[in-house]
Design goal:
single chain, 256 residues, mainly alpha, two-stranded parallel ribbon, two-stranded antiparallel sheet, 64% helix, 7% strand
Length: 256
């Protein structure tokens, strides 16, 4: 578990760690256990609903999936732990290079893409699409991949904004706006979302989120206690009606 959390912190958005509670514990109990163990607070995700079975019948076990969902490794942690780390490291290095199945003409666009300069990548690909043939087809495929990624990020930002994570939504939106700068359609979409942060309800959510972040930092560092639970409950009352208040109320209940 600690190794997976460390890998998640090291690789950030290039990796998604998903922990699965598979011994029948309910969500609140599993969350409280993870909190007590100091395993919360990062990008790793948790669930009590297994998306699939490893078929191994033992714990702890792991599955490593590619970005396309292909199973790369599966086995008990004791036997494949090191292999998983090696595979992730190799993939992280390889992703910076143009894939072997792509024409060399796409190297410039791929470099822009890997550096997060998505608007420049799309402009480059738009010019290459006119060439037709393998270059044109590959350009369309990569452009679709980039656009799907932007749509996914926009969807994620909207979810965060609507579910009590306004500060995270703003940070993510600011990064995306910089990545797609000068792309007419996506810049417009980002501007629409940015305008929402001036609304009275979102301003209140951000204020609540700032107070929540201070309590959450202490909770993740020192663990749960009755005094902190009362502070979360107080925050929930002070900002009643906000999405952040609902999260604060949940934390208060979790620690009681």
């Amino acid at each position: 578990m600690p190794t997976a959390i460390k890998l998640q912190a090291e690789y950030g958005e290039d990796l998604q760690v998903l922990f699965i509670e598979s011994q029948g514990a309910k969500a609140d109990k599993a969350e409280r256990f993870a909190l007590d163990m100091g395993w919360l607070g990062g990008r790793a995700m948790w669930t009590t609903s297994p998306p699939f079975s490893t078929g191994l019948g033992g714990l702890p076990s792991s599955v490593l999936l590619s970005a396309e969902g292909e199973v790369l490794l599966v086995g008990m942690n004791s036997s494949i732990g090191g292999k998983i780390e090696d595979e992730i490291e190799a993939w992280a290095k390889a992703k910076k290079r143009l894939p072997k199945d792509m024409p060399s003409d796409l190297k410039k666009a791929w470099t822009y893409y890997q550096k997060g300069k998505l608007a420049k990548a799309l402009v480059e690909l738009d010019e290459l699409q006119a060439e037709g043939g393998e270059v044109g087809a590959s350009s369309v495929e990569l452009a679709n991949r980039i656009e799907a990624g932007v749509e996914s990020r926009l969807k994620s930002i909207s979810w965060m904004l609507n579910n009590g994570f306004p500060a995270d939504a703003k940070d993510s939106l600011d990064r995306l706006a910089a990545d797609v700068e000068d792309h007419e359609a996506f810049t417009g979409r980002c501007s629409e979302l940015q305008a929402r942060f001036g609304a009275e309800d979102i301003v209140l959510e951000l204020k609540a989120a700032k107070a929540f972040a201070k309590l959450e930092k202490k909770m993740l560092k020192d663990g749960a206690d009755e005094k902190l639970a009362k502070k979360f409950a107080k925050l929930a009352t002070e900002f009643a009606g906000t999405k952040v208040a609902a999260r604060a109320s949940h934390n208060a209940e979790l620690m009681n």
